[in-house]
Amino acid sequence: MAKYKQRISDRILKRKVLGKGAVLIEGPKWCGKTTTAKQLAKSVLDLGDSSVLKQSAQLIELSPKTLLEGKTPRLIDEWQALPLIWDSIRSEVDNRGEPSQFILIFHRFDIIV
Q1: Domain-embedded: residue 58
Q2: Are 64 and 84 in contact (CB under 8 A)?
Q3: Contact at 8 Å (CB) between 105 and 81?
Q4: Strand, coil or helix: what is 28?
Q5: I need a surface site. Which of 93, 101, 106, 112 has the fewest CB within 10 A?
Q6: pLDDT at 42
């Protein structure tokens, strides 16, 4: 694995995470969003992994808070694959009332025509 190279966005992300309950990072695939976020995250839920997504889709129906458990800030990668998680995150941020709870990654798919 290659050594992580510092980015300008590292300081911006850190400042945002320290000041907000949740931060959303959006952009196209393969631009470094997840790699950058992992530098701050203390736990990860990777919904880009099909087996994790399948289990999470079942679990969100029974106990959505379970998916949000973990050391914070908790990185939830490809959250858009499980849209129901959005309301759970918003509610949990409000209930906890603390900064640095979640980092969400949204992979936007650019279509070139």
Answers
A1: yes
A2: yes
A3: no
A4: strand
A5: 112
A6: 98
